[in-house]
């Protein structure tokens, strides 16, 4: 009979060819199979036999399925968010938008927030958590993604302030009736169609949330011209960008009559454009 320590070591060895974080992955998956926290596992509080489902979880990870989808959750800005293959996995890079928003709206808390392509609701819910008096709309064309976002809003006590609605910015008149907003957040698709991506991303995350034409700019070209009609006076719009896209996105914004600031992520790469 394999004990938990041995099972953990063997799983990490098997995952090494798939993951750069093999030991962490093994710890998370074993804790999940046991129904305990990773801390409990590491502190020796988990007891008993290796769960039979642990092997199935390891096989899923060997097949490059992202840990977040296997566990069904992903942390983002101190929120534990439900995720599924219907939504892009929230990433630490996207937290840059929330930090920029915090600084940009210092002393001017937004009353109305719009999240374009809300997915799991990560940006909208993080912003609503930051400003408890604010209300917001999460626009999303995928019904499955809207269900995830609504579930997350309810789980974090934000359902009364977060309205998740259907919308598709590739359709004419998509801004009709939305109104104007003090803060607009957007992490649109921005990956080039032929970009080299890790198998865990290309094979498992939703293509419609990733790819945006040969230059990765198609959705910026649709969205940015609409921003002046959606911003309230003195409003701020923040877009996540790929690290080589700042000049192209800035040019689109300037053509739309917007002022532009580019902000870097923690790795020092351009990650967010601030439009006003």
UniProtKB/TrEMBL annotation:
<comment type="similarity">
    <text>Belongs to the protein N5-glutamine methyltransferase family. PrmC subfamily.</text>
</comment>
<feature type="binding site">
    <location>
        <position position="187"/>
    </location>
    <ligand>
        <name>S-adenosyl-L-methionine</name>
    </ligand>
</feature>
<feature type="binding site">
    <location>
        <position position="140"/>
    </location>
    <ligand>
        <name>S-adenosyl-L-methionine</name>
    </ligand>
</feature>
<dbReference type="InterPro" id="IPR029063">
    <property type="entry name" value="SAM-dependent_MTases_sf"/>
</dbReference>
<dbReference type="GO" id="GO:0102559">
    <property type="term" value="F:peptide chain release factor N(5)-glutamine methyltransferase activity"/>
</dbReference>
<dbReference type="InterPro" id="IPR040758">
    <property type="entry name" value="PrmC_N"/>
</dbReference>
<dbReference type="GO" id="GO:0003676">
    <property type="term" value="F:nucleic acid binding"/>
</dbReference>
<keyword id="KW-0489">Methyltransferase</keyword>
<dbReference type="InterPro" id="IPR025714">
    <property type="entry name" value="Methyltranfer_dom"/>
</dbReference>
<keyword id="KW-0949">S-adenosyl-L-methionine</keyword>
<dbReference type="InterPro" id="IPR019874">
    <property type="entry name" value="RF_methyltr_PrmC"/>
</dbReference>
<dbReference type="InterPro" id="IPR050320">
    <property type="entry name" value="N5-glutamine_MTase"/>
</dbReference>
<dbReference type="InterPro" id="IPR002052">
    <property type="entry name" value="DNA_methylase_N6_adenine_CS"/>
</dbReference>
<feature type="domain" description="Methyltransferase">
    <location>
        <begin position="113"/>
        <end position="200"/>
    </location>
</feature>
<feature type="binding site">
    <location>
        <begin position="117"/>
        <end position="121"/>
    </location>
    <ligand>
        <name>S-adenosyl-L-methionine</name>
    </ligand>
</feature>
<dbReference type="Pfam" id="PF13847">
    <property type="entry name" value="Methyltransf_31"/>
</dbReference>
<comment type="function">
    <text>Methylates the class 1 translation termination release factors RF1/PrfA and RF2/PrfB on the glutamine residue of the universally conserved GGQ motif.</text>
</comment>
<feature type="binding site">
    <location>
        <position position="169"/>
    </location>
    <ligand>
        <name>S-adenosyl-L-methionine</name>
    </ligand>
</feature>
<feature type="binding site">
    <location>
        <begin position="187"/>
        <end position="190"/>
    </location>
    <ligand>
        <name>substrate</name>
    </ligand>
</feature>
<keyword id="KW-0808">Transferase</keyword>
<dbReference type="Pfam" id="PF17827">
    <property type="entry name" value="PrmC_N"/>
</dbReference>
<feature type="domain" description="Release factor glutamine methyltransferase N-terminal">
    <location>
        <begin position="7"/>
        <end position="72"/>
    </location>
</feature>
<protein>
    <recommendedName>
        <fullName>Release factor glutamine methyltransferase</fullName>
        <ecNumber>2.1.1.297</ecNumber>
    </recommendedName>
</protein>
<dbReference type="GO" id="GO:0032259">
    <property type="term" value="P:methylation"/>
</dbReference>
<dbReference type="InterPro" id="IPR004556">
    <property type="entry name" value="HemK-like"/>
</dbReference>
């Amino acid at each position: 009979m394999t004990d938990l320590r041995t099972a953990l070591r063997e799983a990490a060895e098997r995952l090494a060819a798939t993951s750069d974080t093999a030991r962490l992955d093994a710890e998370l998956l074993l804790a999940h199979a046991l129904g305990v926290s990773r801390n409990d596992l590491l502190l020796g509080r988990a007891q008993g036999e290796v769960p039979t489902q642990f092997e199935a979880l390891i096989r899923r990870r060997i097949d490059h399925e992202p840990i977040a989808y296997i566990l069904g959750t992903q942390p983002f800005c101190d929120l534990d968010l439900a995720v599924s293959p219907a939504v892009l996995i929230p990433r630490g890079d996207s937290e840059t938008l929330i930090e920029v928003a915090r600084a940009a709206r210092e002393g001017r808390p937004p009353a109305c927030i719009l999240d374009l392509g809300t997915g799991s609701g990560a940006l909208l819910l993080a912003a609503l958590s930051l400003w408890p008096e604010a209300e917001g709309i999460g626009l999303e064309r995928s019904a499955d993604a809207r269900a995830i976002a609504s579930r997350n809003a309810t789980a974090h006590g934000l359902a009364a302030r977060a309205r998740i609605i259907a919308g598709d910015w590739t359709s004419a008149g998509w801004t009709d009736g939305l109104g104007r907003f003090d803060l607009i957040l957007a992490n649109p698709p921005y990956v080039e169609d032929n970009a080299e991506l890790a198998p865990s991303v290309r094979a498992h995350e939703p293509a419609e949330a990733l790819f945006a034409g040969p230059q990765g700019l198609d959705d910026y070209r649709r969205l940015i011209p609409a921003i002046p009609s959606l911003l309230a006076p003195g409003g701020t719009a923040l877009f996540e960008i790929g690290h080589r896209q700042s000049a192209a996105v800035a040019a689109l914004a300037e053509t739309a009559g917007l002022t532009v600031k580019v902000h870097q992520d923690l790795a020092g790469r351009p990650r967010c454009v601030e439009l006003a």
